[in-house]
Amino acid sequence: MMLVASATAFAGDSDALKAILKAKTYAEADALMKSSLANLANDAEKAKAYNKLVDLAHDAFMVQSTIQTENQLNKQMGKEEKPVDENLMSEMAFNAISAAIECDNYDKKPNEKGKVAPKFDKKNAERLWSTLRNQLVNAGQTAAQARDDEATLKYWGLFMDSELAPLFAACDRTAESEFIGQVAYFAGDYAHKAGLKDKAKQYFTVCANDAKAEAQFKDAAHLNVLNMMKEGLTTKDDSLRVLEEYKQMLTQKPDDELLLDVMYNYYGDLKDKAAQTALLDDALARNPQSFIALADKGFSLLEENPGEASKFLKRAFEVKPDNPMIAMYVGTSLSLQAQNTEDPAQKKAFYKDAITFYDKAKELDPDMLQAKWGYNRYNAYYNYYGEDAPETKQAEAESH
């Protein structure tokens, strides 16, 4: 029995593996791999087979890359340049990295003795991380310009999957640090459109946590993750579960303004006005300068108590004096107070104050891309200056 076991332990490669290792092209090896994966003897053989795919795809990529390098020299010397197959480069970069990740999955599984002794990880990480992986970024950009959503997600998605893969965990990320957040955001957007919710969350989270990503991308990515948590809910229990997740997140990050706003709106979806009020009051108790809490508090009071609404909205504008939407709503709260008073002098004073904020909204957003201040501003001018005043005529002309 021991002799049989020993013979088995030291048996050579299986016929299926031998065939794959003899393949001369990626296409040949890939076809054999797909037809005979189940016939490979163990995880070690599967790792070896996938590594063969990496070798072939890498070599095919490097043939084209070498031509590119030669062309750079030929251009400087005035010589004729050779054609480069960019599509082949992109496809081989994709194939090599995909195969390397699969190889690593098997390469790091325990062997018959329970030991983990990977053979291919370091070499594959070193040869694929920079040049081939950057090709994925370029390929995704080309596909995006061609409006090929499927191909865009294919290349940018793998770029992000490799970012998160254990195989590449130790690689130097300095070169990608300036653009990884932006690629992560767009990869998340394409994944979300394709219905790949878990992938989208992964990619958006990379963007949201990237210190060098632009604020607009970080905030949008974080907001997308928060909103995606609400998608596809079918029962009240599901809604309550997500609400508990939000609460736990807010406990961990009490200054997360986007989370606060999402929770406020979520309570609104659940028709829980008391919870909305408590949420904002607690936030303001923690941080009286919370922009979101001040703004949402003002919005919530706008119809029933425009005077109180005005106080909160003015405070919100003090926190963010570059926000045209808040400036417009301060003006709205003041116009509502003017409409609600019978005192002519007080009415005039409210409209005068409102005009100040409407003018500020116009200054900050002259094309009304964010704040639709046009008609309300004209109305305030009409009531303050009179119908025929030149100021009112000018405001009317600018209201469209």
Structure description:
This protein is mainly alpha-helical. The chain contains 20 helices and no strands. Helix 8 (149-164) crosses helix 9 (180-193), helix 10 (197-208) runs antiparallel to helix 11 (215-228) and helix 18 (344-364) runs antiparallel to helix 19. The radius of gyration is 31 Å and the shape is elongated. 38% of the residues are buried.
Short characterization:
With 400 residues, this protein is mainly α. The chain is built from 20 helices and no strands.
Helix-strand blueprint:
Elements: H1 2-9, H2 15-22, H3 26-36, H4 43-77, H5 86-107, H6 121-128, H7 131-145, H8 149-164, H9 180-193, H10 197-208, H11 215-228, H12 236-252, H13 257-269, H14 273-286, H15 291-301, H16 306-319, H17 324-340, H18 344-364, H19 374-385, H20 390-397
